[in-house]
Automatic annotation (TrEMBL):
The protein, known as: Pyridine nucleotide-disulfide oxidoreductase domain-containing protein 2
All copies of domain Amine oxidase, residue ranges: 15-395
Its biological purpose: Probable oxidoreductase that may play a role as regulator of mitochondrial function.
Database matches in InterPro entries: Amino_oxidase (IPR002937), FAD/NAD-bd_sf (IPR036188)
Pfam families the record matches: Amino_oxidase (PF01593)
Classification via SUPFAM superfamilies: FAD/NAD(P)-binding domain (SSF51905)
Domain of life: Bacteria
Lineage summary: Bacteria, Bacillati, Actinomycetota, Actinomycetes, Streptosporangiales
The protein's assembly and partners: Interacts with COX5B; this interaction may contribute to localize PYROXD2 to the inner face of the inner mitochondrial membrane.
Length: 511
């Protein structure tokens, strides 16, 4: 029977990151990935026409830019294993159907100038908000890429000062409520809410205010990165780092059961029946909802009830991948056109209605997010041609109609905002619906790549369950990825899980 120190189940970017930190600390690590290739949500493929490299899921790498994984290059991804980033500037433009736009630049003052075109007073408000949020980012980021402190202790500490109490209030509010307190003009409020909703939280969802406070300083300090060659380049670099420390990945190896001796996890059984033993730990880069079946419900009905009641994200995603004959030109002008991402925003009342509609099965096709990464990274498409990533917020199930229809509505909304786009510029397209996401990745039931929502009651030290952190309720068994802190997205969050495992094994924290 094959034996390793640690078996990591699932080869998404988080599983690979955890594995690489553990291997760097001297452990013999094997990653088991169900699909025929690793990467999970960080893969790039030529799904339309040869030569057009599309990020199938994640395209914008934001949180990971602030992590020591990238910032301090702790695994040598940048210096030794070929990962490179380009940083579009403006990072994001929020575009309104009437041609107005707000551009979020790396530079906070240039961003304020962009806001001033709509509201000079809100330009000042933005600068004030940045001054409030920037020091808070240090406070929150300290615990963002490491195991989080208990939420109760964190709240008690915040409650000690006036600034802390203000932060606490924001953590408990919805991100639209925070925007409404700080800004005056409806378009500025809508733009802020639209941008933050990318974390799959509707503007009026309570307990999401932290994200406005985090994302504003985050984008100005670290920017938004496109991995050169596509998100798959992050996967490839992490896989190379893992190999350089002696670790390995086995693909086409779906895990069907986690095996125990007494209370201790001692290995896994693959769907093929093969058993692999883990001497020190098993770490699952999976959705916590997958765990009960994998452990044959050994954690009991009460634990399962707590897992079952985790509140889902407000909506999920449909993405269209298009090979374009030329780059889109936005009516909003060259600044908006040159941004890394364009996010279509509706006036505030319609924006609220669109998010409400998602609760009742109606897609928000009129406000897609658009990424033409090939403008910033020409390696993604043949010369002069481009890749278009057209993302729509959708309900997990449609009240009526089909996914192709939703995609076509989004494409029409996108074309209307440009001077040059129509079906005649599309060489080929492929649509990935939430059903496709569910089929693509067993960790994404109903197509939710974040597993469940990021409201404060299931975030920080309460993610996935109060004070569980990365430790499942059995010896030597860990959970890694969006079900755990710091949650959904390309975060490099596998670093914090590795710290927890290394500390339990008496091997320091791996920094
Ligand atoms: C359409 C879409 C767009 C997105 N855009 C962005 C974006 O722009 N920026 C961003 O930051 N994030 C984005 N995300 C979210 C991001 O992709 C995920 O949060 C991220 O992939 C989570 O990484 P992970 O490594 O923890 O897990 P995953 O990527 O989910 O990887 C888990 C891996 O485990 C494997 N697996 C599952 N079950 C088993 C099993 N039983 N045995 C073995 N292996 C198994 C899966 O095949 C998969 O490879 C997007 C997601 C989607 C769906």
């Amino acid at each position: 029977m094959a034996e390793h120190d640690v078996i990591v189940v699932g080869g998404g970017h988080n599983g690979l990151t955890t594995a690489a930190y553990l291997a760097k600390a001297g452990l013999d690590v094997l990653v088991l990935e169900a699909k025929e290739y690793a990467g999970g949500g960080a893969v790039t493929q030529e799904v339309t026409v040869p030569g057009f490299h599309h990020d199938l899921h994640a395209i914008a790498h934001i949180f990971i830019q602030a992590s020591p994984l990238v910032r301090d290059d702790e695994l040598g991804l940048l210096s030794r294993h070929g990962l490179r980033y380009v940083y579009p500037d403006p990072c994001i433009s929020v575009v309104f159907p009437d041609g107005d736009s707000i551009c979020f630049y790396r530079d906070v003052r240039k961003t304020a100038e962009s806001i001033a075109r709509i509201s000079p007073r809100d330009a000042d408000n933005y600068l004030r908000f940045f001054e409030f949020a920037d020091p808070v980012l240090d406070m929150l980021l300290g615990g963002f890429f490491a195991p989080p402190p208990p939420l109760g202790a964190m709240f008690a500490q915040l409650d000690q000062s006036e600034l802390g109490q203000e932060v606490l209030r924001v953590l408990l509010m919805s991100h639209l409520e925070v925007a409404q307190e700080w800004f005056e003009h409806d378009k500025v409020k809508a733009a802020m809410a639209r941008w933050v909703s990318e974390i799959l939280a509707a503007p009026e969802e309570g307990g999401t205010g932290a994200f406005l406070m985090i994302m504003v300083p985050l984008i100005h300090r670290y920017g938004l990165g496109f991995a050169v060659g596509g998100s798959g380049a992050l996967t490839a670099a992490t896989a190379r780092a893992l190999a350089s420390y002696g670790g390995a990945i086995r693909t086409s190896a779906p895990v069907e059961r986690i095996l125990f001796e007494g209370e201790r996890a001692i290995g896994v059984r693959l769907a093929s029946g093969e058993v692999l033993r883990a001497r020190k730990a098993v770490a699952a880069n999976l959705n916590i909802a997958q765990i009960p079946e994998l452990v044959e419900h050994r954690f009991g009905a009460d634990w399962q009830r707590k897992v079952d009641r985790l509140k889902p994200a407000g909506f999920v995603l449909l993405v269209g991948h298009l090979a374009l004959a030329e780059a889109p030109i936005f009516r909003a002008g060259p600044e908006a056109t040159s941004a890394g991402l364009q996010e279509v925003c509706l006036p505030l009342p319609e924006l609220r209605q669109a998010f409400d509609g998602l609760k009742y099965g109606r897609p928000a096709s009129m406000m897609p997010s658009i990424g033409v990464a090939s403008v910033w990274d020409p390696s993604r498409a043949p010369e002069g041609k481009h890749t278009l990533y057209l993302l729509s917020f959708v309900p997990p199930e449609l009240a009526s109609g089909g996914w192709q229809e939703v995609f076509e509505e989004s494409f029409t909304a996108f074309c209307a905002l440009t001077t040059n786009m129509s079906w005649s510029k599309v060489l080929h397209h492929v649509v990935h619906s939430p059903d496709d996401s569910e089929r693509f990745n067993a960790a994404w039931p109903k197509g939710d790549p974040g597993h469940f929502g990021s409201q404060i009651f299931q975030f920080l030290g309460y993610r996935p369950l109060p004070n569980m952190g990365y430790r499942l309720p059995a010896e030597s068994l860990y959970l890694v990825g969006p079900s755990t802190h710091p949650g959904s997205g390309i975060t490099g969050g596998g670093r914090a899980a590795a710290q927890c495992i290394l500390s339990d094994l008496g091997l320091g924290s791996g920094e």
